[in-house]
Structure to design on (288 residues):
């Protein structure tokens, strides 16, 4: 089985619609794909309706969190999307995205970048506006070469010159809320140092003690030594280890299935979850 547990669609900051994403996942030879848009589940219904036969969808979201002044992303899988407290927190984060993005655009303008809010809003479309949309505008303006190049201290990285904070969950609250909704939590790309300051291992240990289920190890922003370090930490803390593409369509160069999760780990995730269940595909033909 080929299992990719971290992807994004136009419901947040990807470039594939949810329907396109599941079709592309099947064409890439995946057996299981998770749709984990930022702080939203809006893309799930469309993805399920278009799900090709032979592909299984894991519903989820990537929750924006902050601990001791450091931002982190928490992947939440197979939770009940209607659980009211978790739904309310997701809504608070989404509501803060537009004023936050406007602040970052203003900071870029103050730095001399001829970026316009209207262009960023058009790039975001109906998605939850975020830094990748601003980064895309910077690429179009020739300020940076790629979207990834915008996520540096010079520009949009955590603490960068044009960075602005937003409403974010305490990760201990996120773990509690996701568990109450029957879901599973995995700390996304925990040592992606190129994105900015990362959470220390002591904090990961505290999160594990609070019920964190796993950490994302095999990821484009982790080099070989970092992955080995994380595997050792996971063994020490009794955490599951996942691998995922963090696919955003044309916003990033990484393809679907570039990094995958071991089937035994996936099986354990599905065994632990009680809020929702993986959806087997029946909405359309699997691409040849």
């Amino acid at each position: 089985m080929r299992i990719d547990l971290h992807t994004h669609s136009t419901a947040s900051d990807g470039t594939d619609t949810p329907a396109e994403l599941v079709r592309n996942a099947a064409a890439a030879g995946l057996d299981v794909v998770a749709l984990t848009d930022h702080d939203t589940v809006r893309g799930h219904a469309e993805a399920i309706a278009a799900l090709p036969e032979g592909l299984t969808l894991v519903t989820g979201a990537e929750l924006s969190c902050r601990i001791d002044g450091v931002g982190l992303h928490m992947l939440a899988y197979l939770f009940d999307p209607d659980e009211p407290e978790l739904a309310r927190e997701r809504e608070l984060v989404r509501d803060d995205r537009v004023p936050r993005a406007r602040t970052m655009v203003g900071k870029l303008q103050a730095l001399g970048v001829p970026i316009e809010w209207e262009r960023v809003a058009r790039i975001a479309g109906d998605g939850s506006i975020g830094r990748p949309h601003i980064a895309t505008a910077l690429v179009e303006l020739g300020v940076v070469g790629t979207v990834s190049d915008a996520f540096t201290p010079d520009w949009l990285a955590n603490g960068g010159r044009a960075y602005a904070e937003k409403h974010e969950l305490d990760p201990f609250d996120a773990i509690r809320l996701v568990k109450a909704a029957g879901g599973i939590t995995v700390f996304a790309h925990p040592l992606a140092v190129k994105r900015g300051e990362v959470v220390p291992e002591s904090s990961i240990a505290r999160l594990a003690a609070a019920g964190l289920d796993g950490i994302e190890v095999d990821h484009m922003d982790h080099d070989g030594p970092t992955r080995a370090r994380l595997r050792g930490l996971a063994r020490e803390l009794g955490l599951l280890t996942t691998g995922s593409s963090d696919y955003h369509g044309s916003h990033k160069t990484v393809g679907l299935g570039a990094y995958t999760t071991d089937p035994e780990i996936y099986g354990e995730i599905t065994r632990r979850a009680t809020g929702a269940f993986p959806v087997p595909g029946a909405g359309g033909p699997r691409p040849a």
